[in-house]
């Protein structure tokens, strides 16, 4: 995998969420995402940023424009040093929230991307990595 652009964005206040979202959308355009794929990755970018902020107490995102030699895509990584996800299986199934919310951010994001990995450790934090590829063309 070749990394064409890589940026680290701090997630510390509510206003950082739309910044991550906007950068994801700009990189999706650079990677030739169509409108559906761009909407999908920007939605995942805001949901996962908001989770890092609200549940993880803040952290950072790494947004990257990548290529595997055949396709261009986006890799987004969200890192926090919060409490970790208590019940990761339930959280991934959806409809489970420790807040007063729908509990669809994590499960919905998973469906919107091509690759999805969560590492979470109680008391230590959470790292979510997603990759989405532009549809092959040329
Ligand atoms: N970064 C994180 N750190 C700790 N817990 C998390 C993190 N991300 C998710 N969780 C836990 O997983 C649950 C499910 O997350 P999910 O994003 O699906 O729902 P939500 O954030 O509660 O609601 P919403 O539908 O508004 O996103 C959360 O309620 C929270 O308990
Ligand atoms: Mg959420």
Structure, explained:
With 138 residues, the protein is of the alpha+beta class. It has a single domain (2-133), classed as 2-Layer Sandwich (Heat Shock Protein 90). Helix content is 36%, strand content 32%. The protein has a five-stranded antiparallel β-sheet, with helices on one face. The radius of gyration is 14 Å and the shape is globular. It binds adenosine-5'-triphosphate and magnesium ion. The site of magnesium ion has 4 residues, from helix 2.
Strand order of the largest sheet: 1-2-3-5-4
Discrete helix count: 4
Give, in order, the helices and strands.
Answer: EHHEEHHEE
Binned strand content: 25-35%
Number of strands: 5
Main sheet characteristics = 5 strands, antiparallel
Q: Distance between the terminal alpha carbons, to the nearest Å? A: 19 Å
Radius of gyration: 14 Å
CATH architecture: 2-Layer Sandwich
Label the structural class.
alpha+beta
Mean pLDDT level: 96
Quick structural gist:
The chain has 138 residues and is of the alpha+beta class. It has 4 helices and 5 strands.
List keywords for this structure.
binds adenosine-5'-triphosphate, binds magnesium ion, 138 residues, alpha+beta, Heat Shock Protein 90, 4 helices, 32% strand, 36% helix, single chain
């Amino acid at each position: 995998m070749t990394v064409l652009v890589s940026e680290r964005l701090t997630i510390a206040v509510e206003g950082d969420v739309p910044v991550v979202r906007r950068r994801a959308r700009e990189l999706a355009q650079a990677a030739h995402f169509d409108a559906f794929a761009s909407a999908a990755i920007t939605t995942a970018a805001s949901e996962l940023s908001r989770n890092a902020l609200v549940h993880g107490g803040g952290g950072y995102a790494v947004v990257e424009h990548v290529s595997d030699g055949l396709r261009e895509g986006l890799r987004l990584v969200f890192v926090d040093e919060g409490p970790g996800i208590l019940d990761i299986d339930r959280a991934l199934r959806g409809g489970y929230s420790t807040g007063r919310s729908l509990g669809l951010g994590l499960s919905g994001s998973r469906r919107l991307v091509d690759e999805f990995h969560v590492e979470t450790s109680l008391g230590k934090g959470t790292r979510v990595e997603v990759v989405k590829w532009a549809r092959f063309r040329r």
